[in-house]
Amino acid sequence: MKATFAKKKSWFFRIALIALAVYIVVSLIQLNLQLNEKQQLLNDWIQKTEQQNLLNADLQDQGENYESYLEQQAREEQGMAKPGETVLYEVPKE
User: Quick one: residue 83, left, alpha or beta (phi over 0 = left, psi -120 to 50 = alpha)?
Assistant: First the structure.
């Protein structure tokens, strides 16, 4: 009688261990998939942050150079000059 009970207990213990092992493996796979997804999101945010930093630096440069930019546009497109300056135009030969 004891041998039968011990065998049943042994089989039950083995089945429980196998079920636990399967559960752990499935859980690890799910966690790994979630980790990969979160890592991809992090990489996307890092890339967006770098792009925004480049845009901010460009806007900062434009803000610092805005006056010289306006002066250049006035000279090139409007033909304007500062007071006291003389503007010379080259006339092509025909």
Answer: beta
| Distance of alpha carbon 62 from alpha carbon 73, whole angstroms | 14
CA atoms within 13 A on the CB side of 59: 6
Q: What is the DSSP code (8-state) at residue 65? A: T
Per-domain residue ranges of the chain: 2-70
Distance CA 54, CA 27 (A): 41
Counts of helices then strands in the chain (DSSP H, E): 2, 0
Report the Cα 13 to chain-centroid distance in Å.
Answer: 49
Q: pLDDT (tens digit, 9 = 90+) per residue, 28-85?
A: 999 999 999 999 999 999 999 999 999 988 888 777 777 887 888 888 788 788 888 8
